[in-house]
């Protein structure tokens, strides 16, 4: 293998500019975290709404929830990203479209966060529905018998329990969102994968570059995992969910 | 809104899109076949009980599963020419990448499948004088695949969607074909919408198939 190693590359300055490659990587990490965490909030909110819709009485909410899940699950994430970036602005009213195309601040970031958020919300909706359906019927009945309205029963009894039950699949979804945020490079978000490609071309030290970026992704996934484990411990309801020891 | 769209570019670009779709499907089939074979071997290694073999397989699977596929695609595209000494086209590089990457995911499914076959089946195989290989080939794996068929297919749908990520190294798949024709005819909006519909149609009908399969298998049990 004919490769010129240079482990000091991270501290050298880039071809055109004062920054070091490490600066690029750190700013890339920042954007990756920003996209992933914003998308996570959107995904949790929409996932909870859509998952709930699919457990309500009546056909209309079920149909809406199902359509949501099928659409966002059956189109590749990268294609969805291009749809949000290139197609959706064309479908907006003219003034709004003009604003989105020209004046919207951090356009790439906002687009990527919305796209990734809604994509992930379909997966979370599936989990929320499964979580709600795994609750004993008595919980809902008890809540209604105590005089809660249906929204109150969901807000105070059903959803708090359902979310605790689905923490393990949510954990892997949270780890996935960091990995999936890598597609944002395709519309020009300056996140880790974008910086990886840029630094590889600029420094011609591909292995060192990709190694650093891979380690940073590892770190994100690891911290996401530990963070969710912490939340799981803190929110455990004693005597309810099988918690091991 | 939709009035300003010019849909006539779609029939004109169908042959080119067809080539892209063909590559996407080829990549899916190659990665699925290779992934299931290597994945099964990885699963057997993890279940073998040998600390070195099982440990190595576990490290491989967990590493692949915690890196974004995009990074894996970039890694292989960088490493393969360094190792072989000559450049490799994006299309072939992607086939190797996806096989290696999907093997990790299929191996987790096969591992669950193998563990779903009861211990007595294995013991019965040995009692009949079969070797380890024969027991696996004729008794355990057929049942494991059967039990896991819906999950394997679901993973294949995910794989098919993920093939769009070869965009990063410029391989000409369905998405790339749409991008190129969209640029040539200056009609990117129509092309992106059209490929989204194609992807949706394929993935949605496959997922309906999986659902039917699930019902069938559930009745047998």
Walkthrough of the structure:
- The complex is a heterodimer of chains A (245) and B (221).
- Chain A contains 10 helices and no strands.
- By secondary structure, chain A is mainly α.
- Chain A has a single domain, classed as MetI-like (MetI-like fold), CATH 1.10.3720.
- Chain B has helices at 9-47, 51-66, 69-84, 90-115, 119-127, 132-162, 174-184, 188-220.
- The radius of gyration of chain B is 21 Å and the shape is globular.
- The chains are: A mainly alpha (245), B mainly alpha (221).
- Chains A and B meet through helix 2, helix 3, helix 8, helix 9 and helix 10 of A and helix 3, helix 6 and helix 8 of B.
Can I get a quick summary?
The complex is a heterodimer of chains A (245) and B (221). Chain A contains ten helices and no strands.
CATH topology of chain A: MetI-like fold
At the fourth level of CATH, the homologous superfamily of chain B is MetI-like
How many helices of chain A does DSSP assign? 10
Assembly type of the chains comes to heterodimer
Helix coverage percent of chain A: over 70%
Major sheet characteristics of chain A: none
State the domain count of chain B.
Answer: 1
Q: Helices and strands in order, then pairings?
A:
The complex is a heterodimer of chains A (245) and B (221).
Chain A: H1 21-53, H2 59-73, H3 77-91, H4 94-102, H5 107-134, H6 137-145, H7 150-165, H8 167-180, H9 192-203, H10 206-234
Helix pairs in contact in A: 1-2, 1-5, 1-8, 1-9, 2-5, 3-5, 5-7, 5-8, 6-7, 8-10, 9-10
Chain B: H1 9-47, H2 51-66, H3 69-84, H4 90-115, H5 119-127, H6 132-162, H7 174-184, H8 188-220
Helix pairs in contact in B: 1-2, 1-4, 1-7, 2-4, 3-4, 4-6, 5-6, 6-8, 7-8
């Amino acid at each position: 293998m004919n490769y010129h190693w240079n482990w000091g590359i991270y501290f050298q300055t880039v071809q055109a500019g004062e920054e070091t490659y490490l600066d690029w990587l750190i700013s890339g990490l920042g954007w990756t975290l920003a996209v992933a965490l914003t998308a996570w909030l959107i995904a949790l909110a929409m996932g909870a709404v859509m998952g709930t819709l699919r457990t309500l009485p009546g056909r209309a909410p079920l149909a809406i929830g199902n359509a949501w899940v099928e659409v966002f699950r059956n189109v590749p994430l990268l294609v969805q990203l291009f749809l949000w970036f290139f197609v959706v602005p064309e479908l907006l009213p003219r003034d709004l479209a003009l604003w989105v195309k020209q004046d919207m601040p951090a356009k790439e970031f906002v687009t990527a966060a919305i796209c990734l958020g809604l994509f992930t919300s379909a997966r979370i909706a599936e989990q929320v529905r499964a979580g709600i359906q795994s609750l004993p019927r008595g919980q809902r009945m008890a809540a209604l018998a105590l005089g809660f309205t249906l929204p109150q029963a969901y807000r105070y009894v059903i959803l708090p329990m359902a979310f605790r039950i689905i923490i393990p699949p949510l954990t892997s979804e949270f780890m996935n969102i960091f990995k999936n945020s890598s597609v944002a490079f395709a519309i020009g978000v300056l996140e880790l994968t974008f910086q990886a490609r840029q630094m590889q071309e600029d420094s011609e030290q591909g292995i060192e570059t990709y190694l650093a970026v891979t380690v940073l992704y590892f770190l994100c996934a690891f911290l996401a995992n530990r963070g969710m484990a912490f939340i799981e411990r803190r929110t455990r309801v004693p005597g309810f969910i099988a918690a091991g020891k | 809104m939709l009035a300003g769209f010019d849909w006539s570019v779609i029939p004109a670009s169908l042959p080119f899109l067809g080539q892209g779709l063909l590559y996407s499907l080829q990549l899916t089939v190659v990665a699925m076949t290779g992934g299931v074979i290597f994945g099964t071997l990885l699963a057997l290694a993890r279940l073998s009980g040998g600390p070195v073999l099982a440990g190595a397989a576990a490290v491989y699977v967990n590493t692949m599963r915690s890196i974004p596929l995009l990074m894996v695609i970039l890694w292989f595209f960088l490493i393969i020419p360094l190792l072989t000494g000559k450049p490799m086209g994006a299309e072939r590089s992607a086939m190797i990448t996806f096989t290696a990457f999907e093997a990790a995911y299929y191996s987790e499914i096969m591992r669950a499948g193998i563990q779903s076959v009861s211990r007595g089946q294995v013991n019965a195989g040995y009692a009949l004088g079969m070797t380890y290989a024969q027991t696996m080939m004729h008794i355990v794996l057929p049942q494991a695949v059967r039990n896991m068929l819906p999950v394997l297919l679901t993973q294949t749908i995910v794989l098919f969607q993920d093939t769009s990520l070869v965009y990063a190294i410029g391989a000409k798949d369905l998405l790339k074909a749409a991008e190129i024709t969209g640029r040539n005819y200056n009609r990117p909006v129509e092309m992106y919408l059209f490929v989204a519909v194609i992807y949706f149609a394929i993935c949605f009908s496959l997922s309906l198939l999986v659902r039917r399969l699930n019902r069938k298998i559930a009745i047998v049990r």
